Amino acid sequence: MWNDQSVVGGGFFNSTNQFGNANTPNQPQKTSRRTSRTAPIVIRQALHSGDGDITIWGTEIMIVSIVARVRNIRMQSTKITYTIQDITGRMRAVFWLDQEAMEEDDKSTPKVQVNDYVQIYGNVKTNKGKKVLMAFKIIPITDVNAITFHYLQCINNRLKMEADSKKTKVNGNTTSSAAMPANSMVGMADSTSVNGLNPRQMMVFNLIRASTLEQGISKQDMYVTVKDRMSQMEFENILEWMCGEGHIYSTIDEEHFRATDAF
């Protein structure tokens, strides 16, 4: 098959009826944030998501698309559990079987084998403290270009949501500033952010982005540079946050990182 270091993909569905309602039954929909029906992500973003829906730059993602390699398959009478892996991490994906459909049509079960690349649509849930992808649809990948395309879509989607977030923020600041005194100091802290990152986050991000090594820069090398300016706990929190927001990703292991805009 293809090398694990290949780049990964997914797509958007404009139809709001593609998979029905992704919310838990009888659970009220949230309206305080923007929502996107479907968006491509990498596994690390799923692993670092909170208890609710995955959020990218303030936009809640109801259904995700992940492209990954199948590492293990466990068949049961009511479900199939896949262990999937991309270049950012590994997680479980669960596909529940429709018994009636199986009796009528054998095509209802995904035709997937270990080491195949697949594109999975579903939503991310937390089960016993671990993130699990509840799969709605699993499509075997037969074209290696789909893997590269997915990674490109992940990057493009994050940049688009970042731009939309900034546009909303600017419009909000314009409205609120009209009601503030001319000498008000409110909001000055935000004016120092770059690409949505504050100066301390940007310090770490620039170290990662400046690396020209294929495997990226190691966590140890980064901390040697910034240890006089921040504690190790703050440094670790910054790395974890940037991974969750899609700014960076781990490469050969959990100790080496590259920036998503470094492709």
UniProtKB/TrEMBL annotation:
Positions in coiled-coil regions: none
Keyword line: DNA replication, DNA-binding, Nucleus
One term of GO molecular function: single-stranded DNA binding
Keyword DNA-binding listed: yes
Any Pfam family the entry gives: tRNA_anti-codon
Superkingdom of the organism of origin: Eukaryota
Keyword Metal-binding: no
A GO CC annotation given for this chain: site of double-strand break
Similarity comment: family membership: Belongs to the replication factor A protein 2 family.
Protein name (database record): Replication protein A 32 kDa subunit
Organism of derivation: Papilio xuthus
Lineage of source species: Eukaryota, Metazoa, Ecdysozoa, Arthropoda, Hexapoda
UniProt gene name: LOC106115829
